[in-house]
């Protein structure tokens, strides 16, 4: 599946469906996403029955046969198209414990979709990409830990400075002992590994620019030892910083 996709919204609605609402059996030519915000519904997709309720996401692919009924439901539904070489995959039904961020973005799409002011399609497409990214890369039952998010954002904003667990714990207002364990449990990696990842990603960008030598890049990304920087870069990227820089096209020339 392509990491970059360009969804084109063909239909969007947020509405309350009464018991008389139904979708008669039909073959669809688009991707169909249905977010159940309240109530429940019964869908049949390619001959398989799915009962969906509050917190459920229904995903139907093009060329599928669908029909649906409800006893009462509030939902947001979006139909979108992709280019011939683009694909998008999700389970037919998934349950999300926390729909807050998704619902907020859907309401924003609804706000612009109904007004149809100049540029609304571009904004709605951008918002849909954010929704799809969240659906694809975040776990349905995973709740965001605010302390870990504070730590991650602090690291991204201060990667070039000295970063210690005690500093990060203070920023997140938690104990030093708990800080490292919480981060590892939530992110599946250590704080130091995350710091190195952020620093090396930034270092790669600086090396590609051609503005700085290896020593300058190490200093600008928070590494006080150029040899440790070089070994860390090679371990994570697969080549030395110098080799990486020589392979990269020079965007800016040193003045």
Which band does the percent of strand residues land in?
A: 15-25%
Q: Give the CATH H-level superfamily of the largest domain.
A: Jelly Rolls
Low-confidence spans: pLDDT under 50, at least 5 residues? 250-255
What is the top-level CATH class of the largest domain?
Answer: Mainly Beta
**What is the overall silhouette?**
elongated
Measured between the Cα atoms of the first and last residue, the distance is 42 Å
The second-level CATH architecture of the largest domain is Sandwich
Radius of gyration: 24 Å
Which structural class do you get from the secondary structure elements?
alpha+beta
- Return the average pLDDT rounded to an integer: 90
Taking the sheet with the most strands, its summary is: 7 strands, antiparallel
Helix proportion range: 40-55%
Keywords: DNA-binding, Transcription, Transcription regulation
Domain HTH araC/xylS-type: 149-247
GO molecular function: DNA-binding transcription factor activity; sequence-specific DNA binding
Protein name: AraC family transcriptional regulator
Can you tell me about this structure?
With 255 residues, this protein is of the alpha+beta class. It folds into 2 domains: 8-137, Jelly Rolls; 146-247, Homeodomain-like (Arc Repressor Mutant, subunit A, Orthogonal Bundle). Helix content is 44%, strand content 24%. The chain contains 9 helices and 7 strands, in the order βββββββααααααααα. Strands 1, 2, 3, 4, 5, 6 and 7 form a 7-stranded antiparallel sheet that branches. Helix 1 (100-115) runs antiparallel to helix 2, helix 4 (165-172) packs across helix 5 and helix 6 (191-209) packs across helix 8 (226-237). The two termini are 42 Å apart. The model is unreliable at 250-255 (pLDDT under 50).
